[in-house]
Amino acid sequence: MSPGSSNTPAPDSEKEPTELARFREQWKAEVRQRQSGAQTQPGAGASTTTTNRAVSPARSDTSTKTVTTSNTHSAPRELPRLAAHAIAGAPNVPVLASHGQSHLSPTLAHAVEIYSNAVFHEQQSQLDEALRLYRQAFRLDPNVDRAYFKEHELSAASSTGHKKTSSTAKVDGVPRSAQKLIVHEDGKDKSYMTSVLLAQVIRSFPEHLVFEPENEKDGRPPINLIPDELLLKILRTLDYTTIERFATVSRKARVLCLDSAIWRDFVYLAYKPPQIADDESLTDIVKQYGSDYRRVYMEHPRLRLDGVYIAVCHYVRTGSSENAWVHITHLITYHRYLRFFPNGQVLSLLANEEWQPQTVIPMLKPTLRMKGFYIGDWSISGNTVYITNLAEKHPVPTHATGELQQSRYIFQMTLALHSRPLGRWNKLDFIGYDSVNVEDGEAIPLPLKHERSFWFSKVRSWPGY
Question: In sequence order, what are the residues at sequence separation of 6 or more whose Cβ sits closer than 8 angstroms to the Cβ of residue 146?
Answer without folding.
Answer: none
